[in-house]
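Note to self: user wants both folds in one dump. Writing first protein now.
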Amino acid sequence: MALRLNRGDIKAVLVDLSGTLHIENEATPGAVEALERLKSSGIFVRFLTNTTKESKNYLHERLTKCGFCLKKNDILTSLTVSRQYIENHHLNPLLLLEDAALEDFEGISRNAEEINAVVVGLAPSKFEYESMNHAFRVLMNGADLIAIHKGRYYSRGDGLALGPGPFVSALEFATGRTATVMGKPEKNFFLSALTGLNCEPHEALMIGDDVRDDIEGALLAGFKAILVRTGKFRPGDENRSSIPPTAVCENFAAAVDYILR
């Protein structure tokens, strides 16, 4: 399945990370070399990720160890936009995050007596009863609920694993509150990746393994989008978007071949 793509129409490519470029500490097949070819083509390349288990520094270090050569400033994470939102709204949050992600929130006011927001990311060590119940009580006292993203599941070395979405949904169900979502598939998250590139959405393309958050989100924001059959992809996903993907490719390397052909 593929729509006609004119190479000259693409000024920027946004690349999902986990499940697309790498899975934990392993690059997907051919991804390291393919990224170099894409960067050498003259197309702007940025990385758009909902990864919330670790800070941007941790993530950049992981990618470097996988063999990738990329600039840390070219990585846009949902943690980054969440911090901006917290600062812009003068919030004093309870952070349901792994310790490895807290670096991206250093300097944020966190007075336990004046909490007015609960921020939820992918935090397996925090998703136990007492922590969730504490968050529930804070929300019932009027705090805002902020979901760094609502991913349903993700791919790790031993198979699929629950994302933060089910835990955010549990808090929404229990409190009657609706979370403000920061990362993919939110339109503003995609648009923010084009800042400074002199590029319109229709001139940009997203590559990802999540048909809802990566592909449908990008398409609804006006981007083109290639779904890859790695990471969390499951047979039939290509038919689960309200708008068909621009193309479906075996992996990131094949997607780069498709773009540059």
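First done. Writing the second protein, which came from a different request thread.
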Amino acid sequence: MNANRSPVPREAGTTSDDELVLVEDHGDWALITLNRPHKRNAMNRAAQRRLREALREVHEKKVVVLTGVGTSFCSGIDLTEAPPAAQPGRRASASIGSWAECNEEIRRHPALFIAAVNGFALGGGSTLVHNCELAIAAEAASIGTPEMAFGAWTALSGPSLINRVLPKHAAELIFLAKRVDARTALRMGMVNEVVADDQLLPRAFELAERIATFDATTLDWGKRAFRAMVNASWEESMELSRRTGSAIAASRSHEASPLD
């Protein structure tokens, strides 16, 4: 794929379920593109199902670049969609909801994720940015948590933001229902770099290609360790690091068993 070219969406309302999320194979890494531009890439239930399918398709990749078509990266879940019909019986205690499950699958995925933030990343869309290990923002990008303005708590975008930036920055976005431009997002620590709009995918691809040269086992276990260390103490991090090194060595010499 030409790094400067975005997928061409169909006319509004004609995108099939399989095309709601696009996957491009680049060898040891992949590009996943959210493709509902007429809805600013708001994720309805069909798009969320397709995203989980796409994550399974790229399970063996070392790196995944995540971006959106059009002027939005992702504007969260599609609030215009009617809720699903009530199901008989009680809800399972382990049920966390469809969008939360999408984000958990990214957390558990063995690949590192790079968010290529091409435009609006609002509400649940900002959660995707915070859930990626790295994030590159185009100059046109903006990131925000608008939920408070319409009487809703920032159920996923709030905690994901609080886990990524200083408390005062998080409070500013959450309690003012605010969105910030790319340069402010960089200053607050939500993204790693800001680039010209036409350099967004080339830069994200450059990072993906570099990471894809590294050892897959180390990346997989390293991601798990990094996630666990973010809010751990010094002692907990050091112990986890020692166990991660042992796990990497054991994984390389592992022989298949009936339990695999």
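Dump finished. Worth passing along: Confidence is low (pLDDT under 50) at residues 8-12.
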